[in-house]
Every structure is written in structure tokens, then in C-alpha cells.
Amino acid sequence: MSDEFLDMKSYTDIYNHYRKNVYPCAEKEYSWYKQADNLRSAVKKAFLSRNEKGEVEDHQARYGIPKCLCLAAKIALEHFDTQCISDFDNFNSIYEFVQGVRNKVEGFGELANYDVALRISQYLGIEVHEVYLHRGTREGFCALRLNIKNRRIVPVEKFPEPFNQLSGDHLENLLCIYKKVLDDPSAEFPKNCIRRKTNSSCINKNCCIC
Fold first, then answer.
1. How far is residue 187's CA from residue 182's CA, in Å, rounded to a whole number?
2. Which 8-state DSSP code applies to residue 198?
3. Of 5-19, 37-51, 84-98, 155-169, where does mean pLDDT reach its minimum?
4. Which of 14, 32, 184, 196 is 20 to 30 A distant from 80 in Cα terms?
């Protein structure tokens, strides 16, 4: 665990650290994907997953899927040409559009599905009001010990303060980045702070690092 995380003793500590150090970087990344001539171009840009420098985004490069991004973009544009613009009026419908492409491209996984849908949503100015649980985000969620079982999508308002002040995409990011802080068994937190003392765990062996 990074030394800068060791002094975090409350949800507020984590929230403030995220707002100061991570939030601006995420918004800068979003601003790149908001720059497109039209929705079709934004869809292509989102699937290709290349940043302002022309490099494949870390999430997509890390899991070895750059080779399938061009194929996914091609299929996405074919699908897009048969869609109605109204099909892109909320995050979940965009996520399902991307999932339709994902089902046809081997190696295009759950995290890529979310990332691409988020980039398209950013172009459209659509705010995410739920947290989609996948990979490291699921681990961070489990560390909170919330009494919400068997959920893949959790509304932001179900999270404790001040986490529920974030949009769903930023909260998803926070849970992934700070999952080890939230689930540190060696830490002694005050009663109203991060980790409830329990031996239970809902992290399965297939969880991957975000």
C-alpha cells in the first residue's frame, strides 16, 4: 500500500484525497473524449480507446486487448448505423449497446465495456447515477460491507457519506483505487470510519485488479 494512503483513517480522508489527486485527472481524460465532431465519431473514438497522445488507455493496454479494439470499433459503427439517437439517452442503454459489441469480440471484457460506455456518455453529457461493479471496484465495494447482496449495479445514494456526493463513475474509480485502504485488516479505525470489524468476505478468487 502506498505510504500516502497510510494516514487515511476515515471515509472523508479518502474522499478528500480522491477529490484533490484523482478527480482532476479523470476529468481531464473525460475532456478528451468529449471532443468529437458528432456522436458517430465519439463512438469510434471511445472504442479505439486512444488518449490525446495516441496511446491506448492503460485499462485496455493492461489486459492485452488493443488488438481487438479496431474490430470492436468497426462492429460498433455498423451497429450504430442501425440505432436511433434516442437509444443513447441514458448510461444503461449505452452500456447495453457496447455490450452487444462486446459479445461479438473475443477479449473485449467487462472493464472495457464500462470504459467505452462511459466515454460515449461523457461526450453526450450524461451523468452516471449508479456504480457498476466489476474487477477492483467489486473489491472496494465488498470492503464497505454494505448490506446489498447479489448486486451488479448499485445506486450512488446507497453509499455512505461523503462517497455519495460523487457521480457513479467517480465513485467506481474511487472504490477501485482505494480498495486496499478500505479493506486493510491491520488498521485500527475509529467506530465511524472505514472498516467494520468482521471476518466475512464477499471477494471471490476471480476478482482482478482494476
1. 10
2. -
3. 5-19
4. 32
Contact predicate 120/93, CB 8 Å: no
CA–CA gap between residue 28 and residue 168 (Å, rounded):
17
Contact 23, 170 (CB under 8 A): yes
CB 131 within 8 Å of CB 104: no
Q: Which amino acid is at 74?
A: K
Looking at the whole model, is its pTM more than 0.85? no
DSSP 193: S
Indicate the DSSP class of residue 24: H
Euclidean distance between the first and the last CA atom of the chain, given in angstroms as a whole number = 15
The pLDDT tens digits for 41-92 are 999 999 999 999 999 998 888 766 777 999 999 999 999 988 888 889 999 9
60: Cα separation from own chain's centroid? 13
- How far lies 149's CA from each of 111, 133, 142, in Å? 21, 12, 10
For the chain, domain boundaries: 1-31+130-210, 35-124
Cα 176 from Cα 210, distance rounded (Å): 6
Spatial distance between the Cα atoms of 113 and 15, rounded to a whole number of angstroms = 26
Q: Which residues contact 64 (CB under 8 A, 6 or more apart)?
A: 107
How far apart CA 88 and CA 21 sit, in angstroms, is 31
Q: How far apart are CA 163 and CA 168, in angstroms?
A: 10
Cell of 113: 465495456
Are the C-beta atoms of 178 and 18 separated by less than 8 Å? yes
